[in-house]
Fold Ribosomal RNA small subunit methyltransferase A.
Amino acid sequence: MSNKVHLGHTARKRFGQNFLTDSNIINRIVGAISPDNDHIMVEIGPGLAALTEPVAESIDKLTVVELDRDLVERLKQHPFLKDKLEIHQGDALQFDFSQLMQPGKKMKVFGNLPYNISTPLMFHLFEYAEHIASMHFMLQKEVVLRLSASPGSKAYGRLTVMAQYYCQVIPVLEVPPESFTPPPKVDSAVVRLVPYEQPPYPCDDIKQLQHVTSTAFNMRRKTLRNNLKGLFSDEDFSNLNIDASLRPEQVSVAQYVALANLLSSKNN
């Protein structure tokens, strides 16, 4: 991929822009995404089209959501892409992805996400999980470690529980800083999130799961009993067979769902 794409656009700090320039890494990511016409292909933050071009080559239509108006203008003028792209200028965090749905087709979503919005954006996309076949995101390596963590590890937290509730999480590859212009100060990695057809531990009310996990992880060093004392009694914990003296990162996704479902039944 030639460098001339970069002429005339300076990466903007406020958008968290780091542009991917390593063609070997780009090819591996496109291979992981596996673009096709059987899905609604959606890219978040196409930037200077490093992934957009090779993905669009093998499909008829690609939908992109881009906040930066200058980049949207460039895409509209792009000799090869302009006829293939459906461009939505705006903030992906506010975007209603249900407007992209088509009968019998699920979405494949991908993007080199600005680090400052990656977590809230994933939470936003989880709301559409049943309509998504797969998500491939370039993230800070540390975020991929959090997404894929096991109970008991330092990286395990609220993001882990919510991501693993909705999706199978598969780290795909690590990407060094020199693969980008300008090089970020952190290591990056690509993760594949595959939403479950049926969550293995179904939750009666997802808001209760969000409430329980955010309350539990509010103070990581304290025990479950301390952090959730306003919500659950010792009897509740023993009925669910959950050790109340555990710290929040020692509790499994299934156990958090059991707590959330108990809370739902109490509130009904």
Remarks:
- Confidence is low (pLDDT under 50) at residues 1-8.
- The CA atoms of residues 46 and 52 lie 6 Å apart.
- The chain is about 30% helix and 20% strand.
- The first strand starts at residue 19 and ends at 20.
